[in-house]
Design a protein that fits this description.
Length: about 350
């Protein structure tokens, strides 16, 4: 056997083309195994797992790391080339018969569009903006990627405007969680949508693939527009997918299985992949920060009472003492008398 240096992909047990979501799941699984109570402490392994996660979930660091693996891969390939040549003759002599008799792997059939529409209809919505005068303006479509978290367009949204997510028959107030100015996309928070997040696709879109653009009509009804992928190109943040679909900004692009591929952006028929960090963070339920609990107000004191500091005994109301008998006054003065300081006071 030819030894090979362990890579960061090997540390997490994922392939080199793994998605960020797969890397995150693998990291959480390995971390739970290393840090469980009955496991022996292994700080070196824990640090290696953390390094692999931070490197492979950062697009720039991952690209630089992948380039650094090219030279070791070539050296590894040259070392095993002799072994491959030694067995190639035997493999070719008998393998071609098996290959000729083995049927090609069946392609995954596309799901019926009616099934896909039933699954995604409750996850796609229309976003409207309400200005200070109360006028409502359509912003674009949106879709759910996590619990109470949606992706939509930020084009034309005023900082003072109120956003409303329209999921018939509900209208849910929303606010902006984060913005990507370069893509023109917003991540929204809308509590109580009650919608199921769209599932990201594990497959890369290719030219000629069947895709669906899910869009919302004027009446709030969701529909699917089928089309073919015309071109897939690299964008500054992910990939650009060009199709023949006419979709509103913020509309999701689905593959033939109804899984999420990209989101519609500026330009007719153009979709961009969603930032991987948005998908990763959407795996955890979003929780609103609760405001600090205010301290209770001090209880009001009766009229005429002497203000007291904490820990001090309140003083009697002098005005009330005018209307009591001498015997009652003596008892009250004795009750409110300060503790004795000297021995002589105890004798009184």
């Amino acid at each position: 056997m030819v030894d090979r240096k362990e890579t960061l992909y090997d540390v997490l047990g994922v392939p080199r083309d793994a998605k960020v979501t797969d890397i995150t799941r693998a990291y959480n699984r390995h971390k739970s195994q290393v840090t469980r109570d009955d496991a022996a402490p292994d700080l070196k392994r824990e640090a290696k797992i953390k390094e692999a996660y931070e490197t492979l979930t950062d697009p720039e660091r991952r690209e630089a790391y992948d380039r650094s693996l090219i030279v070791p891969d070539r050296k590894y390939a040259s070392r095993i080339r002799g072994i491959v040549i030694g067995v190639a003759g035997v493999a070719l002599a008998g393998g071609w018969l098996v290959f000729m008799r083995t049927p090609a792997a069946p392609t995954v059939k596309a799901r019926p569009s009616e099934e896909i529409l039933n699954d995604v209809a409750i996850s796609v919505a229309r976003v409207n903006s309400i200005d200070m005068s109360g006028q409502m303006t359509p912003v674009g479509d949106a879709f759910v990627i996590g619990e109470n978290v949606l992706v939509s367009s930020c084009t034309g949204v005023s900082p003072t405007a109120q956003l409303v997510v329209m999921i018939p028959p509900r209208q849910v107030p929303a606010r902006i969680l984060s913005v990507d100015d370069e893509l023109g996309l917003c991540r929204l928070v809308a509590q109580g949508t009650g919608s199921r997040p769209l599932v990201p696709s594990r497959n890369e879109a290719k030219t000629g693939d069947l895709v669906y653009a899910a869009k919302v009509g004027d009446a709030g009804k969701v529909s699917l527009e089928p089309s073919k992928v015309k071109l897939v190109s690299f964008a500054p943040k992910g990939k650009m997918i060009e199709t023949g679909a006419k979709a509103s900004v913020g509309s999701p692009l689905l593959d033939a299985q109804g899984l999420l591929l990209a989101v519609a952006t500026k330009g007719e028929g153009r979709f961009v992949t969603i930032p991987p960090l948005w998908i990763t963070e959407a795996l955890e339920p979003f929780k609103e920060e609760k405001p600090p609990t205010p301290e209770p107000a001090p209880e009001p004191q009766p009229a005429g009472a002497q203000p007291t500091a904490p820990g001090m005994q309140p003083q009697p109301n002098q005005d009330a003492l005018k209307h009591i008998t001498p015997e009652q006054r003596a008892r009250l003065e004795k009750a409110y008398r300060p503790p004795p300081d000297t021995k002589d006071d105890w004798m009184k």
